[in-house]
Amino acid sequence: MPNEHKGLLQSLDGLSEVELRRLLVEHLTKQKLGLYWERNAIDHDRALNADVVLPRLVPQWSHKPKGCNEHRNLIIEGDNFDALRLLRATHAGKIRVIYIDPPYNTGNKDWVYNDKFVGANDRWRHSLWLEFLYQRLLLARDLMTSDGVILVSINDENRARLELLMDEVFPGRRLGSLVWRTKDTGNDLTQRFSHVHEHVLVYANGGFAFNGRATDRSKFRNPDKDDRGDWSPQPLTANKSLTERPNTYYPIQDPATGYWYPCDPDSTWRFASEAVIRRLCQGNETAVQAALAALRSDTMEALVAQRLIYFPPCNPEDVLFFATEADLLAALKAGKGPMLPKKKTPLLRGSLPDLDFWVGKRIAPGRPSRKEHWTAKPEAERLAPLSSWIGGMNEEVGEDEVELFALRSARGGVATEEIKQVLGSKAFPHPKPLSLIKGLLQQATRPGDTVLDFFAGSGTTGQAVLELNAEDRGNRRFILCSSTEANNKEPDKNLCRDVCAERLRRVIEGYGNKDGIALERGGEFAYLQLDKLDPADLALDATPDHASTMLAMRHANAVQAAQQKQDPRIVAKGNDWLLVLCSQVNEDTLEQLTALPSMHGVSRLVVYAPRPKSLSAYLADHGVQAQVFSLRNALEHRAGEHA
Question: What residues contact residue 373 under an 8 Å CB cut-off, 6+ apart?
Answer without folding.
Answer: 220, 226, 228, 229, 230, 231
